[in-house]
Amino acid sequence: xxxxxxxxxxxxxxxxxxxxxxxxxxxxxxxxxxxxxxxxxxxxxxxxxxxxxxxxxxxxxxxxxxxxxxxxxxxxx
Length: 77
Known about the structure:
By secondary structure, the protein is an all-alpha fold. Helices cover 90% and strands 0% of the residues. It is elongated, with a radius of gyration of 28 Å.
């Protein structure tokens, strides 16, 4: 990347930031921060809950398969 294109990119990003900064109010930034925090907490909670449910589901299925195989082997003997 040449120096000209880098300065163009930096100038464009800086101009965009400086043009939008006065338009966005502090209440919008606070609301966005709160919503981002709530979204992160909900996402984390759902991920942990699904991990526990899937772990217990497969654990129960594995245990039932093992006990079924043991009973089947005992009756075959």
